[in-house]
Amino acid sequence: PVGSELPKDLQLDRDHTTRLGDKNYDDPLKLFYGCGVNVQDFLDYHQRHNLLRPPPMHSRPALWKYMTDQVLEDLREHCEFDLFRLVLAMSAESYTLAIYDSYLIDRTKMR
After folding, report:
1. Distance, CA of 67 to CA of 64 (rounded, Å)
2. Confidence (pTM)
3. How confident is the model over 28-78, as pLDDT tens digits?
4. Using CA atoms, how far apart are residues 110 and 108, in angstroms rounded to an integer?
5. Whole-angstrom Cα distance, residue 105 to residue 100?
6. Alpha-carbon gap, residue 21 to 15, rounded angstroms
């Protein structure tokens, strides 16, 4: 969507009586606002910012998870914004570094 307001059909109905009482109500699609990243972006960030080397690990996924968590924590600390999270995009190598989602953007905008 363009602009700072979501179209009505993408807004979450915050009235819990409607959401919980109406069996026909479906939550709208959740949109994520952020930037596209991949594994190499996280490895590069980790190296450029001299984050602590991970302990020896037997699996590559565990190593990737450890380093990703370090990068996200470093970003949260430097930006003073604790809602960064990693969201899987369309392929296993592409992710979105999500800053907001459409359900919470009106409550969590960065200052």
Report:
1. 5
2. 0.66
3. 777 777 788 888 898 999 999 999 999 998 898 888 889 989 998 998 888
4. 6
5. 5
6. 10
Residues across the chain: 111
List the one residue out of 85, 111, 100 whose CA is nearest residue 6.
100
Query: What is the 3-class SS of the chain, one letter each residue?
Result: CCCCCCCHHHCCCCCHHHHHHCCCCCCCCCCEEEEEEEHHHHHHHHHHCCCCCCCCCCCHHHHHHHHHHHHHHHHHHHHCCCCCEEEECCCCCEEEEEEEECCCHHHHCCC
- Residue 2: which region, alpha, beta or left (left: phi > 0; alpha: psi -120 to 50)? beta
